[in-house]
Amino acid sequence: GITVKMDGSGPTEGAIAAQFKSGAPTWDLVDVDPFSAITLGAQGMLEPIDYSIVDKNKMRPGFGWEHAASTYFFSYVIAYDSEKFGSQAPTGMADFFDVTKFPGKRSLYKWGVSSWEAALLADGIAPASLYPLDLKRAHDKIAAFKENVVAYWGGGAESQSVLLDGEASMAIVWSTRASLIEQDS
């Protein structure tokens, strides 16, 4: 019996902060990345989840935080032009950032999620030691690499087209989009 209005404009950190600062937010619930929810919650811009109402036992253990709950999972992978690299496929993030061994332009997600982790892995951080993220080190790595980035994609279709159109030889994309690229090519 509750009317729900969907706003597909996307609850970015900036949009949520703007609504909070306006004093008259129009969103009651947002589907936002946990990184953003944790950051905004720490600034008092999101209310804590009331776990006396929300059953934390129905969540994957470790994925119910004070201001965020992960409801689905996805991954970022390296998608690459197999014709360009042939049998010499990239095998990790160090290869993604190595334009000498793997020449060509790259594409990254326009938000920090995935790019931070990729940069730190390429810079030698062990997967088990990634978190908490060293954002300065990640930003430095990405800044030093920016001349090799042809596009910072913001949506799934864009991540596909930058590869299918040949603008980039490699991109870090959602695993589902990488599967579609493989089917389409």
Question: What does the model show?
Answer:
This protein has two domains: 1-73, no CATH class; 76-184, Periplasmic binding protein-like II (D-Maltodextrin-Binding Protein, domain 2, 3-Layer(aba) Sandwich), CATH 3.40.190.10. The protein has eight helices and four strands. The protein has helices at 13-22, 34-42, 82-85, 93-96, 115-122, 135-145, 156-164, 175-184, and strands at 76-80, 106-109, 149-153, 170-174. It is elongated. The mean pLDDT is 92.
Please outline what is shown here:
The chain is of the alpha/beta class. It is built from 8 helices and 4 strands, in the order ααβααβααβαβα.
Structural key phrases:
D-Maltodextrin-Binding Protein, domain 2, elongated, 4-stranded mixed beta sheet, 2 domains, alpha/beta, single chain, 8 helices, 185 residues
What is the secondary structure topology, with strand pairs?
Layout: H1 13-22, H2 34-42, E1 76-80, H3 82-85, H4 93-96, E2 106-109, H5 115-122, H6 135-145, E3 149-153, H7 156-164, E4 170-174, H8 175-184
Parallel strand pairs: 2-3, 2-4
Antiparallel strand pairs: 1-4
Mean pLDDT: 92
Helix-strand category: alpha/beta
Which strands sit side by side, in order, in the main sheet?
1-4-2-3
Dominant shape: elongated
Total strand segments: 4
Fraction in helix: 25-40%
CATH architecture group name of the largest domain: 3-Layer(aba) Sandwich
The biggest sheet, with number of strands, parallel, antiparallel or mixed sense and barrel status, is:
4 strands, mixed
CATH fold label of the largest domain? D-Maltodextrin-Binding Protein, domain 2
Low-confidence stretches: none
Give the termini distance in whole angstroms. 46 Å
Tally of separate helices: 8
Cα gyration radius (Å): 19 Å
CATH class of the largest domain: Alpha Beta
Q: Secondary-structure element sequence?
A: HHEHHEHHEHEH
User: CATH homologous superfamily of the largest domain, by name?
Assistant: Periplasmic binding protein-like II
Whole-number total of structural domains? 2
- Give the amount of beta strand, in percent: 5-15%
